[in-house]
Amino acid sequence: MVLTLLLLLFSACSSDDSEPIENINSEASLVLTQMEKDALVFMMEEERLARDVYDRLFAKLGLNQFQNIAKSEQSHMDAVENLLKHYNLPYTILEAGTFQNSDLQAAYDSLVVQGEANIIGALSSGATIEDLDIFDLENWMAKIENVVILDVFSKLQCGSRNHLRAFTGSLDMEEATYTPQFISQSEYEQIINDDNEKCN
């Protein structure tokens, strides 16, 4: 049943974003539109971009915040990967920092350069990633209809809002600010002024 499937999928983004999906009900529809296929492949790459940048910045700066959020991004990757497997969509995970999508590759390269410069640059890179993630998820969710994918993407977006709050909060402590580059200023302000969410 679809309800059973959704309950399993919700485990992909628990309150600490640490629990991957264990399995997916075989009764779920295996028929996807090309848009839905493209959305899954793209978001797999974008969640991996986040993980790889945070891993790189943790190695460079040693800030635990990056290590913790990288673990969360891994759970997001696991959620999307399970959907890719369920829908029999081929995807090869390349080595860290290497992406099939040229735009994401350019973003990774730029974010790493900015992030490795100093703490403020690193936190700004983190905020930029979450800003982009929220924006892209919104765009995909407006175009697709598959209820299973929509619910997983909703949980991923919830996690990204929490991560954006974390990075902007750390920037505040450094007496620095972040200006949104993808979502609107009004949406950004609403997110950072809200409390952290439970994403399960």
- The CATH topology assignment is Ferritin
Distance between the termini: 19 Å
- Estimate the strand proportion: under 5%
The number of helices is: 7
Low-confidence stretches: 1-16, 18-23
Task: Outline the secondary-structure elements.
Layout: H1 2-10, H2 34-61, H3 64-86, H4 102-117, H5 119-141, H6 147-173, H7 185-193
Helix pairs in contact: 1-6, 2-3, 2-4, 2-5, 3-6, 4-5, 5-6
Structure report:
The protein is mostly helical. It has a single domain (33-88, 96-193), classed as Ferritin, core subunit, four-helix bundle (Ferritin, Up-down Bundle), CATH 1.20.1260.10. It has helices at residues 2-10, 34-61, 64-86, 102-117, 119-141, 147-173, 185-193. α2 packs parallel to α4, α2 packs antiparallel against α5 and α3 (64-86) packs antiparallel against α6 (147-173). The longest helix is centred in the N-terminal third of the chain and has 28 residues, at 34-61. It is globular, with a radius of gyration of 16 Å. Mean pLDDT is 88; it is low at 1-16 and 18-23.
Short description:
This protein is mainly alpha-helical.
Throw out a few tags for this protein.
single chain; 200 residues; mainly alpha; Ferritin; 7 helices; globular
